[in-house]
Queue: 2 jobs
Job 1
Amino acid sequence: MKNAVSLFVFAFFLLFAPWYASAQGAFVIGVAPHTSARVILEMYQPLRLYLSRSLNMPVEVVTAPDFDEFARRALAQKYDLAVTTGHQARLLQNDAKYLPQLTYQADFKAVAIVPQNSRVTKAADLKGQKVLGLSAASLVTLWGEHWLAQNHLDIPVKYVSASDSVAQLLVAGEAAAGFTSLANFQKLRPELQGQLRIIAESAPLAGRVYLLNQRWATREKAINAALWGFAETAEGKRYFDSNKLGGYRRLHSGELEGMDRYAAEVRRLLKKAEK
């Protein structure tokens, strides 16, 4: 019970207090909320420990309640290293001068999922139905909204906190379809994943990108080397294998530029929310 309470308290700080680690002089890794805070903490623990040893400084992992807030915090320079999908990476590169470092080898795809026993087999079957996504600034949600529009469907998307929440709500009959990443769909518990199926998937998109805050530019080579060093460790290889990420790779020429359209939508959404 004590351990559960401790994890809850830590997850609270992970989610709502990115300033806490910074105030304590830690190197702050901000991870976009592609899943729950608890899962993010577990996923990035090996990297956190390795970087702390390699850089000889305290390192903390934080996230945000949703993709919109993550973008706001990143633009406000709250993170030393940001890990987020390609469209927000492009936004941070252009608007906050973050320095792109690397991404994952595995393709990143967005998918539309429905309950296994649903009669929905194509977009047209969703007319008049409820659809779920992550926050408005999430790449999978933006792709999903484009997919609906391309199929001449004017359906508002209801936003929820994480991909596993999308899956659970679909199984509970709270919506007809939902948008998530293929990787997060594949990471669902087998008994939950088995109650869902994919009806559409995107072409490969720029997936999670690691970006270094410009204030660390003088140590960029050392930090980049530490990231690649982690990839060669047993812990790093287990991390890639368990999350089906393949490993790190360098960004292709023009890869982030291909996200300009989606980055512009995030910029527009954030400005609209400020009014």
Job 2
Amino acid sequence: MHYKAKKKYGQNFLKDSYFLRQIVQAIPNTSSQVIEIGIGLGDLTDELLKIHNLIAYEVDEDLCSLLSKKHSSLLETQKLRLILCDVLELKDSTGWLHPEPYFLVSNLPYYIATLIVLKLLRDEKCEGFVVMTQKEVAEKFCACVGDKEFCALSVIAQSVGEIELLFEVPASAFEPAPKVTSAVFRVIKKPNHPRIEEIEKLEVLLKVAFSAPRKKLAKNLSNLYPKQEIEEIFSYLGLDENLRPHEVSTTLYHQILEYEEKNGKQRTKEYAPPQ
């Protein structure tokens, strides 16, 4: 199939059959609806259709037309449902991509990958996902406390589910080849994961905590709490005042939030991070 990738959509098509199979094999047994964002030339779509009914979102009208011709019979039986739209224009709410529980599998465009993963983490109908992103993005989501990559993205992901960096994918596996290495990671959400309201409160705390990653956590938190309250929080949780943001675990960030709510602590202002 001859098709010229469009730069405006960040299209790099995964063609290597080995990595396509590895992605599919990473999907857990699920009875939930499987969804794909970005069908590309249909190589991953074809592998998914061998074992699942599929809903596929695609923003490129030309690619939708190609796949519609290729899989006309599957579209008729609704084994495949193809939706032409920009997923970022869909209403950001519970059931963002589907009103019922779903599991997402996708080779995400690099330029919107972080935003999409965050939306998936917030969406209570999403039970988990296997996605490919730029390696550096995958490492941030999958980092452990103490790692230099550990950041707000790591804490949010760990708060919601079990996350695992699975494997790297070289540029040579794509057409056209990107200028970066990619990586695939998986999130399986916990049954009792925090609800959207708690995640949103956590995100505000984390934006402040990691606003200057090399500075001490206490210094960063001074943008959100009075000095006395920071001292109380650190004393109550037994935190070293010299800790940097990446040295504080996900559990401890939740405990800071819980202490604030339990003790009626007042933020000095609703912190707005730099644009």
